[in-house]
Amino acid sequence: MRAIVLGIAATLATGLSLAPASAMPVAPGHGVAPVASIEQAQYVTRRVVRRGPRCTVQVTRTRGPFGRVVVRKVRRCY
C-alpha cells in the first residue's frame, strides 16, 4: 500500500516538473508590489553598557628548538 502511494506521488511530481513554462499560470498585474504597500524601514539602535575590563586572548605561534611549534597564549585586558 505504501509503495503504491509513493509511486503515485512520484509520478505526479515528475509530471508537474516536466510541464512547459508557458503552461504555468501567471498572476495578472504588476510583478512588483505597488508603492502604497511599501512601508518605511525602521532602524533601532541599542547600546549595551558593559562594566569591567574587556579581555581577549592573544595567541602567538613561533618555532621553538628542533622546529617545534610553540604556542603562547597571553590574556590582554583593556
- Number of DSSP strands? 2
The helix-strand sequence is HEE
For the termini, the CA-CA separation is: 69 Å
Tell me the strand percentage band. 15-25%
Proportion of helical residues: 10-25%
Helix/strand class: alpha+beta
Total number of helices: 1
Basic shape: flat
Describe the sheet with the most strands. Answer: 2 strands, antiparallel
| Average pLDDT rating | 77
Order of neighbouring strands in the sheet with most strands: 1-2
Low-confidence residue ranges: none
Radius of gyration, whole Å: 31 Å
Helix and strand layout, with pairings?
Elements: H1 2-17, E1 55-63, E2 69-77
Antiparallel strand pairs: 1-2
Detailed description of the structure:
With 78 residues, this protein is of the alpha+beta class. The chain contains one helix and two strands; from the N terminus they run H-E-E. Strands 1-2 form a two-stranded antiparallel sheet. Strand 1 and strand 2 (69-77) form a beta hairpin. The longest helix has 16 residues, at 2-17. The chain is flat and about 70 Å long. It starts with a helix and ends with a strand. The relative contact order is 0.11. The model has no long low-confidence stretch (mean pLDDT 77).
